[in-house]
Design goal:
Layout: E1 3-9, E2 12-17, E3 22-26, H1 27-32, H2 37-40, E4 42-43, E5 49-50, E6 64-70, E7 74-79, E8 88-89, H3 90-100
Antiparallel strand pairs: 1-2, 2-3, 4-5, 6-7, 7-8
Bound molecules: zinc ion.
């Protein structure tokens, strides 16, 4: 399954899939689920999750500057605060959108 159209509409990201389905997800929800190591913490050799000093999120953190498709399996948003290391697989995005429920 691939997106045929990805578009930020207001405070939501609208994704149209090639099976005809659509996913709407709030940009804030998307950012708060950023899967990158900085946001999620990296496990050390003991398996403990070390959360780095998390940068406080600002209103700009939830504004999308740009979004790119990566390798045909994921989306990489570039946020207005400059954060861009989160790679969201299509499945992951659908999962977040479902667990967040309709907005
Ligand atoms: Zn991140």
């Amino acid at each position: 399954m691939r997106p045929v159209n990805v578009e930020a509409i207001g405070e939501e990201l609208a994704i149209k899939w090639d099976d005809g389905g659509e996913t709407y997800i709030r940009l804030e929800t998307l950012r708060r689920h950023c899967p990158c190591a900085t946001c999620q913490g990296e496990g050390d050799i003991m398996g403990n999750i070390q959360k780095g000093p998390s940068k406080p999120l600002s209103p700009r953190s939830f504004q999308l500057r740009q979004i790119a498709t990566v390798g045909g399996y994921a989306l990489q948003p570039i946020w207005e605060d400059g954060h861009s290391s989160g790679i969201y697989s299509f499945e992951y995005i659908r999962k977040i959108a479902q667990s967040a429920g309709p907005s």
